[in-house]
Write a structure and sequence with these properties.
CATH topology of the largest domain in chain A: Molybdenum Cofactor Biosythetic Enzyme, Chain A
Largest interface: A-B, 99 and 99 residues
CATH superfamily of the largest domain in chain A: MoaB/Mog-like domain
Number of helices of chain A: 7
Shape of chain A: elongated
Strand order of the largest sheet of chain A: 7-4-6-5-9-8
Distance between the termini of chain A: 41 Å
Number of strands of chain A: 28
CATH architecture of the largest domain in chain A: 3-Layer(aba) Sandwich
Oligomer: homodimer
Chain lengths: 411, 411
């Protein structure tokens, strides 16, 4: 690591491949421990244990229709020209229970979801009846069992509901509530501290002036971290001051730290040497464009990402590397949240073999075109773009007319 | 409307088509007014006005590399065997300014992002130099303008940044901050009150007992509403009590109300007649399965959705109808948030012409199969399913082997 501490103003000696970086991230990050959340709050959380149903849903036979509970065989032969009459013993709505048993020739008016009374085995829909006083005329037959939901028809006691690792949908949370579960064991969301360094930076919301510019990386990081299931614990803006940055790194109690700026080999780029001083600097310099001055290390078992100050590099480094660590910690799948489409290229895209390229494209008609002005500092290239494509390490690019996969930003 | 008030226990006279329902929703809902939010909070909000940049980004010429600011023509002819020497006048990091002008034979050490000093027109990368004391030896030539980002290279003053209606990405929020905007005018998020009615219902987190079941619809609604950009203002659980439900409807101050349960034609289904009493009942009964007992009306210019108590119906009614109203109010596009894929059917799916069907399917290998147990009451059909397909009104279904579009729940 000594060598790495010392590369300021000398350029990167060696850049790690994207895949090599992934291996290091995977080795140094593990899923968070679990926490219990109330069932109304478990949406989009990741289950930390498999779940088996503690009960039947429903736990009673219930009417699936509004109508009349009958013994089906008593309606056989009923028709509009040959109505069969039943004495109405009462009316049952959901949540009520009929304690007696209905007898031959009797019926009970019953609403969808109400428990089927003893003595009945089916429900004749209201549409096929006529009610006259305390008498119901069945105008159609109903077969035994018809329009009745049996015990456990939705969920059976002991049934395996969800595997560990399931990302809970709205309806999953609903199923957990319906079997009577009140608290759910899920992976804790990873917390992230964001340190934004740079003498030149103003905070978002301030007006840029003179040679000062507004920090925008904290905004990109904050929102992407939230999107990927993380919690931003703290955002600090710091000058290029070795001691202040060191203290901030030592004080962090988050699961993960992102330092934006000062990651490269300039004289004010303190972050790499600080990580090496306080812990271990494992990566510095990656074969990717933009975002090559990205770094990674561990301080007190805490992953620390060194992100380039250039905004496009920062976004690219986040999506390629930080997002992966956050998703591992949150036990989420590693796929990008971007929807990808296959589309023909309207421009040539050249790259360098041995380097991954993150290329912003706009889509016009049925073709994707390179965004003309697209340096690492040109944040507007990512707002003018509809998405991006990745040129793999082994490729030297794509020719006009080739079909490529484009990841859409709005997806 | 009188007729509609009176249909309990008689079945629906007439069901409106899904498209007909859409027309009524579209006529009765409009985008919310605007509100100002801080630029750090505008992610995923929808712009209420077009935005033009008030300034150039950057507002000064800046170095795009770590290296030395020079007049390019003074380096012509430099090579490792023929270094050209410059006197180092100092060092400039981002946020600092060099007030003088560098003269012939002079250079300034400069970091990425620092403002280019007067007298220089390019930056020679550190990699192509050697520094000995106060002297820099250029080992390579650099052409004028090289490695310099000019005023406005990212964003030009007066440039149109975003159209009204843009849903802001993380990087969009970052661009807004970088041009010095602190507050952004966005459409107010629609607020929603959820009234859950039913004597049989326990609140989520309670344990089902006897003939009582746990309400799960409020969970599905709450999460789907949040997902679609709405804010759940209040969730109330109410018994099947006409007066209590009336009071709750009158007390609502949300942009939109959802009533779950009591929407059909059972004796305890008070919701439709209450909407007719307090306002106007515009829809009751839809040609869709499940979710046919869905209703819609207006009370005090407030859209009110009557949603079936059956959980699959509730989810289906939400996605088809409520989501549309929420997205209109929030000025979002009307597309479902589900990613759709084309896939072959492994089962036949039969439907009724004249009715839209919402069919849950699971995906196995490269085929989609119908979920066997899939009535409106079987919530677990939506957790066992990988997604759903929609059988259009004009169709009588699909045959095994046909390619259909399946919307994925996890997307």
């Amino acid at each position: 690591m000594a060598e790495m501490n010392d590369i300021r103003m000398k350029g990167f000696h060696q850049r790690i491949s994207v895949e090599g970086f992934y291996t290091i991230i995977d080795k140094n990050t593990a899923p968070n421990p679990s926490e219990l959340v109330h069932v109304t709050e478990c949406y989009d959380r990741v289950l930390c244990e498999p779940i088996t149903s503690p009960r039947n849903v429903p736990d009673f036979n219930r009417s699936a229709m509004d109508g009349y509970a009958v013994k089906g065989e008593e309606t056989f032969g009923a028709a509009s020209y040959n109505p069969i009459s039943f004495k109405i013993r009462g009316r049952l709505t959901p949540g009520q229970e009929f304690k007696e048993e209905i007898q031959k020739g009797e019926t009970l008016q019953i609403m969808t979801g109400a428990p089927l009374p003893k003595g009945a085995d089916s429900v004749l829909m209201a549409e096929y009846t006529e009610q006259v006083g305390q008498c119901m005329h069945a105008m159609e037959a109903v077969s035994p069992g018809k329009n009745v939901g049996l015990v456990g028809e939705d969920i059976q006691k002991g049934e395996k509901l969800f595997q560990k690792g399931r990302r809970l949908r709205p309806q999953d949370a609903a199923v957990l509530a319906s079997v009577g579960i009140s608290e759910v064991s899920v992976f804790k969301k990873p917390t992230v501290d964001i340190l934004v360094t740079g003498d030149e930076l103003l905070k978002p919301g301030q007006f840029p002036d003179g040679v000062k510019i507004v920090d925008s990386n904290s905004i990109v990081l904050r929102h992407c971290i939230q999107r990927d299931g993380g919690i931003v614990k703290m955002i600090r803006h710091l000058p290029d001051d070795l001691d202040l940055i060191r203290t901030a790194l030592q004080e962090s109690s988050a699961d993960l730290v992102c330092i934006s700026g000062g990651s490269a080999v300039g004289v004010e780029d303190f972050a790499p040497s600080l990580v090496a001083e306080l812990g271990e600097l494992l990566v510095h310099g990656v074969s990717i464009r933009p975002a090559s001055p990205t770094g990674f290390g561990m301080i007190d078992h805490r992953p620390v990402f060194l992100l380039p100050g250039n905004p496009v590099s920062c976004l690219s480094a986040y999506d390629f590397f930080v997002a992966r660590a956050i998703r591992i910690k949150g036990a989420r799948n590693l796929q990008w949240p971007y929807r990808s489409i296959a589309i023909k290229l309207g421009s040539n895209i050249s790259s360098q073999s041995g380097r991954v390229d993150y290329v912003r494209v706009r889509i016009e008609g049925s073709q994707a075109f390179l965004i003309a002005t697209s340096g690492a500092a040109i944040l507007s290239s990512t707002t003018k773009a509809d998405g991006f494509l990745v040129v793999p390490e082994a490729s030297e690019g794509f020719a006009e007319g080739e079909t490529v996969n484009v990841c859409l930003y709005d997806s």
